[in-house]
Amino acid sequence: MPQVEIRKRLISVEEIFHEGGPRANTPLRRCAGLVVIRNPFAGRYVEEIAPFMEDLKPVGLALAQDMVTALGGDRSIVEGYGKGSIVGSAGELEHGALWHAPGGYAMREVLGNSKAIVPSTKKVGGPGTRLDVPVTHVNASYVRSHFDAVEIGIPDSPRADELLFALVMTTGARIHNRMGGLAASEIKGEDGLR
Protein backbone atom coordinates (compact mmCIF):
# COMPACT_ATOMS: atom_id res chain seq x y z
CA MET A 1 0.00 0.00 0.00
CA PRO A 2 1.06 3.62 -0.44
CA GLN A 3 3.00 5.37 2.30
CA VAL A 4 1.21 8.01 4.39
CA GLU A 5 2.58 11.46 3.45
CA ILE A 6 1.60 14.09 6.04
CA ARG A 7 1.66 17.73 4.93
CA LYS A 8 0.46 19.28 8.18
CA ARG A 9 -1.22 18.71 11.52
CA LEU A 10 -3.25 20.98 13.76
CA ILE A 11 -4.39 20.54 17.34
CA SER A 12 -6.64 23.16 18.92
CA VAL A 13 -8.36 23.43 22.30
CA GLU A 14 -11.42 25.61 22.79
CA GLU A 15 -12.62 26.54 26.30
CA ILE A 16 -16.24 27.52 26.86
CA PHE A 17 -17.02 29.35 30.12
CA HIS A 18 -20.69 30.18 29.46
CA GLU A 19 -23.27 30.47 26.69
CA GLY A 20 -25.06 33.50 28.10
CA GLY A 21 -26.03 31.83 31.38
CA PRO A 22 -24.09 31.40 34.62
CA ARG A 23 -20.34 30.98 34.35
CA ALA A 24 -19.29 27.32 34.69
CA ASN A 25 -16.98 26.41 37.57
CA THR A 26 -15.00 24.29 35.13
CA PRO A 27 -15.04 25.31 31.45
CA LEU A 28 -15.99 22.78 28.80
CA ARG A 29 -12.95 22.03 26.65
CA ARG A 30 -13.31 20.82 23.08
CA CYS A 31 -10.18 19.57 21.35
CA ALA A 32 -9.82 19.05 17.60
CA GLY A 33 -6.94 17.17 16.01
CA LEU A 34 -6.53 17.44 12.25
CA VAL A 35 -4.06 15.86 9.86
CA VAL A 36 -3.69 16.57 6.14
CA ILE A 37 -2.20 13.85 3.96
CA ARG A 38 -1.66 13.21 0.27
CA ASN A 39 -4.50 11.15 -1.16
CA PRO A 40 -2.79 8.20 -2.88
CA PHE A 41 -5.99 7.44 -4.81
CA ALA A 42 -6.73 10.95 -6.10
CA GLY A 43 -7.63 11.33 -9.73
CA ARG A 44 -8.40 7.68 -10.45
CA TYR A 45 -10.67 4.86 -9.40
CA VAL A 46 -8.94 2.17 -7.35
CA GLU A 47 -11.00 -0.88 -6.39
CA GLU A 48 -8.99 -2.09 -3.39
CA ILE A 49 -8.46 0.85 -1.02
CA ALA A 50 -9.38 -0.74 2.33
CA PRO A 51 -5.83 -1.98 3.10
CA PHE A 52 -4.76 1.70 3.40
CA MET A 53 -6.71 1.84 6.68
CA GLU A 54 -3.95 -0.25 8.24
CA ASP A 55 -1.38 2.38 7.22
CA LEU A 56 -3.50 5.10 8.82
CA LYS A 57 -3.65 3.43 12.26
CA PRO A 58 -0.40 4.99 13.55
CA VAL A 59 -1.61 8.41 12.36
CA GLY A 60 -4.84 8.02 14.33
CA LEU A 61 -3.05 6.81 17.46
CA ALA A 62 -0.51 9.64 17.41
CA LEU A 63 -3.24 12.23 16.87
CA ALA A 64 -5.43 10.86 19.67
CA GLN A 65 -2.49 10.70 22.09
CA ASP A 66 -1.46 14.27 21.27
CA MET A 67 -5.04 15.44 21.85
CA VAL A 68 -5.14 13.87 25.32
CA THR A 69 -1.83 15.63 26.04
CA ALA A 70 -3.27 18.94 24.81
CA LEU A 71 -6.19 18.45 27.22
CA GLY A 72 -3.76 18.04 30.15
CA GLY A 73 -2.71 14.40 29.88
CA ASP A 74 -5.54 12.77 31.84
CA ARG A 75 -7.59 10.60 29.49
CA SER A 76 -10.29 10.10 32.12
CA ILE A 77 -11.55 13.68 31.62
CA VAL A 78 -12.61 12.96 28.01
CA GLU A 79 -16.38 12.41 27.95
CA GLY A 80 -17.26 13.00 24.29
CA TYR A 81 -15.79 12.19 20.89
CA GLY A 82 -16.30 12.18 17.14
CA LYS A 83 -14.43 11.93 13.85
CA GLY A 84 -14.67 13.27 10.32
CA SER A 85 -12.92 13.70 7.01
CA ILE A 86 -12.83 16.13 4.12
CA VAL A 87 -11.79 14.71 0.75
CA GLY A 88 -10.11 16.99 -1.80
CA SER A 89 -11.90 17.43 -5.13
CA ALA A 90 -9.79 14.86 -7.01
CA GLY A 91 -10.89 12.17 -4.57
CA GLU A 92 -14.17 10.42 -3.83
CA LEU A 93 -16.29 10.25 -0.70
CA GLU A 94 -15.20 6.65 -0.10
CA HIS A 95 -11.63 7.88 0.47
CA GLY A 96 -12.96 9.78 3.51
CA ALA A 97 -14.43 6.52 4.82
CA LEU A 98 -10.87 5.18 5.13
CA TRP A 99 -10.73 7.10 8.45
CA HIS A 100 -13.57 5.13 10.11
CA ALA A 101 -11.52 2.34 11.67
CA PRO A 102 -8.14 4.06 12.18
CA GLY A 103 -9.69 7.21 13.66
CA GLY A 104 -12.37 5.58 15.78
CA TYR A 105 -10.35 2.72 17.15
CA ALA A 106 -7.42 5.04 17.86
CA MET A 107 -9.52 7.15 20.19
CA ARG A 108 -11.10 4.13 21.84
CA GLU A 109 -7.65 2.60 22.42
CA VAL A 110 -6.10 5.80 23.77
CA LEU A 111 -9.10 6.53 26.01
CA GLY A 112 -9.12 3.01 27.41
CA ASN A 113 -12.58 1.73 28.06
CA SER A 114 -15.04 3.69 25.90
CA LYS A 115 -18.10 1.73 24.81
CA ALA A 116 -20.00 3.92 22.32
CA ILE A 117 -19.49 3.96 18.58
CA VAL A 118 -17.59 7.06 17.45
CA PRO A 119 -19.96 9.26 15.41
CA SER A 120 -18.66 10.33 12.03
CA THR A 121 -19.19 12.59 9.05
CA LYS A 122 -17.43 13.22 5.75
CA LYS A 123 -17.68 15.30 2.61
CA VAL A 124 -15.81 16.29 -0.54
CA GLY A 125 -14.59 19.89 -0.65
CA GLY A 126 -11.78 22.24 -1.53
CA PRO A 127 -9.37 24.34 0.52
CA GLY A 128 -11.07 26.08 3.40
CA THR A 129 -14.02 23.68 3.55
CA ARG A 130 -15.53 23.47 7.02
CA LEU A 131 -17.03 20.34 8.55
CA ASP A 132 -19.23 19.93 11.62
CA VAL A 133 -18.00 16.80 13.40
CA PRO A 134 -20.72 15.19 15.55
CA VAL A 135 -19.99 14.39 19.19
CA THR A 136 -21.61 11.88 21.55
CA HIS A 137 -20.70 10.53 24.98
CA VAL A 138 -17.81 8.04 24.92
CA ASN A 139 -19.75 5.34 26.76
CA ALA A 140 -23.40 5.82 25.80
CA SER A 141 -24.71 7.34 22.60
CA TYR A 142 -28.06 8.24 24.21
CA VAL A 143 -26.65 10.76 26.70
CA ARG A 144 -28.42 13.83 25.36
CA SER A 145 -26.33 16.36 27.31
CA HIS A 146 -23.27 15.43 25.26
CA PHE A 147 -24.85 15.73 21.78
CA ASP A 148 -22.67 18.38 20.20
CA ALA A 149 -20.62 19.22 17.12
CA VAL A 150 -17.19 20.75 16.66
CA GLU A 151 -16.54 22.75 13.50
CA ILE A 152 -13.17 21.97 11.94
CA GLY A 153 -11.19 23.07 8.91
CA ILE A 154 -7.88 24.49 7.72
CA PRO A 155 -7.79 27.48 5.32
CA ASP A 156 -5.50 25.85 2.73
CA SER A 157 -6.77 22.29 3.02
CA PRO A 158 -7.59 19.92 1.56
CA ARG A 159 -5.98 20.53 -1.80
CA ALA A 160 -7.44 18.51 -4.68
CA ASP A 161 -5.09 15.58 -4.08
CA GLU A 162 -5.34 15.55 -0.28
CA LEU A 163 -7.38 14.11 2.57
CA LEU A 164 -8.07 15.96 5.80
CA PHE A 165 -8.83 13.65 8.72
CA ALA A 166 -10.15 14.93 12.04
CA LEU A 167 -10.74 13.66 15.58
CA VAL A 168 -12.55 15.62 18.28
CA MET A 169 -12.75 15.12 22.04
CA THR A 170 -14.72 17.02 24.66
CA THR A 171 -14.42 17.10 28.44
CA GLY A 172 -18.10 17.16 29.29
CA ALA A 173 -21.66 18.09 28.48
CA ARG A 174 -22.73 21.24 26.67
CA ILE A 175 -22.54 24.27 28.94
CA HIS A 176 -26.03 24.92 30.39
CA ASN A 177 -27.42 21.61 29.06
CA ARG A 178 -30.96 21.13 30.32
CA MET A 179 -32.76 18.92 27.80
CA GLY A 180 -33.15 15.90 30.09
CA GLY A 181 -32.77 12.33 28.90
CA LEU A 182 -30.24 9.77 30.08
CA ALA A 183 -27.74 11.42 32.43
CA ALA A 184 -24.04 10.54 32.27
CA SER A 185 -24.29 9.39 35.90
CA GLU A 186 -26.94 6.81 34.86
CA ILE A 187 -24.89 5.07 32.14
CA LYS A 188 -24.85 1.30 32.44
CA GLY A 189 -22.22 0.94 29.72
CA GLU A 190 -23.39 -2.45 28.55
CA ASP A 191 -24.00 -1.83 24.86
CA GLY A 192 -22.63 1.61 24.01
CA LEU A 193 -26.14 3.00 23.79
CA ARG A 194 -27.33 3.28 27.39
Which properties best describe this structure?
seven-stranded mixed beta sheet; 60s Ribosomal Protein L30, Chain: A; 7 strands; 194 residues; AA_synth_put
Describe the structure.
This protein is α+β, with helices and mostly antiparallel strands and 194 residues long. The chain has one domain (6-186): 2-Layer Sandwich (60s Ribosomal Protein L30, Chain: A). The protein is 18% helix and 29% strand. It has helices spanning 52-70, 93-96, 100-111, and strands spanning 6-16, 28-38, 80-87, 120-124, 131-137, 148-152, 162-170. Strands 1, 2, 3, 4, 5, 6 and 7 form a seven-stranded mixed beta sheet that branches. The termini are far apart. The model has no long low-confidence stretch (mean pLDDT 96).
User: Regarding quaternary structure, how should these chains be classified?
Assistant: single chain
Total number of helices: 3
As for the CATH topology, it is 60s Ribosomal Protein L30, Chain: A
Helical content class: 10-25%
How confident is the prediction overall: mean pLDDT? 96
Distance between the termini: 39 Å
Order of helices and strands: EEHEHHEEEE
Form type: globular
Instruction: Extract low-pLDDT stretches.
Output: none
CATH class placement = Alpha Beta
Instruction: Quickly give the structural class.
Output: alpha+beta
How much of the polypeptide forms β-strand, as a percent range?
25-35%
Main sheet attributes: strand count, strand direction, barrel closure: 7 strands, mixed
Q: Which CATH architecture?
A: 2-Layer Sandwich
Tally of domains: 1
The count of β-strands is 7
CATH superfamily: BB2672
